[in-house]
Amino acid sequence: MDYATSSIASPLLWRGRERSFCLLLQYSIFPNPNNGIMNILQAAPDNNPVNAKLMDAKGVVLYKGDLQFSGGKTPFNLKGIVPGLYLLQLRDSKGNNYELKFIIDN
Fold first, then answer.
1. DSSP letters of 13-75?
2. How many angstroms separate the Cα of 52 from the Cα of each of 1, 18, 29, 61?
């Protein structure tokens, strides 16, 4: 493959004494690295809005807002942004937090 995705381990929920667990939503960015045009993907589709905060490598907030997913994905366009490493923090409708790192390399 000539691409890679960036994702993190999902939070885990413990259930009952048997200590079984279920995985919550996972997110990934495709492609990564990219030229500023990418898709954010959900492992399990959820049509509720997801709160997003985008920061550069210095921690400067570049974007805050809600993302709406359809069919487990949403486009994310940062065309024209300075190449570098970025951090996207997501909070789903259940209050679970996720962090995704990605690279823009025009």
1. EEETTTTEEEE---EEEEEESBSSEEEEEESS---S-EEEEEEETT--EEEEEEE--BTTEEE
2. 29, 35, 13, 11
Local confidence band at 17 (pLDDT 50, 70, 90 cut-offs): very low
Q: Are 12 and 81 in contact (CB under 8 A)?
A: no
Q: Are 42 and 72 in contact (CB under 8 A)?
A: yes
Q: What is the CATH number of the domain that holds 40?
A: 2.60.40.3080
Instruction: Convert the pLDDT of each residue in 50-76 to its tens digit.
Output: 999 999 999 999 999 999 999 999 999
Range of the domain at 32: 4-104
pTM of full prediction above 0.70: yes
The CA distance from 91 to 97, in Å, is 5
Q: Tokens 């951090």 appear where?
A: 87
CB contact at 8 A, 48 and 93: yes
Domain count, the chain: 1
